[in-house]
Design a protein that fits this description.
mainly alpha
């Protein structure tokens, strides 16, 4: 029996999760900034700090996303279900977080939330965090099936944020 015969049926490899992820991204981009605090005193006095946080978060997002993609380039897939020829990567950025591609999106979104002080975007960020936690847990179950040593790796390396979560 080949590995292809062991694949879950279409729709059971996380295809719907990918669609939901793109819908979340589109919603985040199209979401209006609510409340609009641009005319408040706090918004103006916090501008330098908000810019610094935005630049830091977007730089972290680019580094994590870029290195994450580079480290698994031959195994990269939009689906959470691992490709047939995958191997477990635990070095590079994957030695810091288990899901740097999801982390990159969360860092970018957090930077925007802080920069805009948007509660509507904060609500979507919380939803995205819950979504990525769910998607990552499905992906990790499949990875453990292929790579039992993944359990030891998961005990040592945080899911999204180095040293935190």
């Amino acid at each position: 029996m080949t590995h292809k015969e062991n694949l879950p049926p279409k729709g059971r490899r996380g295809e719907y999760l990918v669609v939901l992820q793109f819908l979340l991204i589109a919603a985040f981009i199209l979401m209006p900034i609510l409340p609009d605090l641009r005319d408040t005193h706090f918004f103006h006095i916090s501008e330098l700090l908000r810019w610094a946080i935005l630049v830091f978060c977007w730089a972290a997002a680019m580094v994590m996303g870029g290195l994450g993609s580079h480290n698994i380039k031959e195994f990269l897939t939009p689906l959470p279900y691992p490709v047939d020829h995958n191997r477990l990567v635990t070095t590079g950025v994957y030695g810091i977080v288990r899901h740097p591609l999801y982390s990159s999106q969360l860092f970018a979104a957090f930077g925007w939330v802080v920069f805009t002080l948007s509660f509507s975007h904060l609500a979507l960020l919380v939803l995205a965090f819950l979504f990525f936690s769910f998607k990552a847990s499905k992906e990790e179950r499949w990875l453990v099936q292929r790579h039992p040593e993944y359990l030891d790796y998961a005990k040592k390396v945080r899911m999204f944020f180095p040293w935190i979560y």
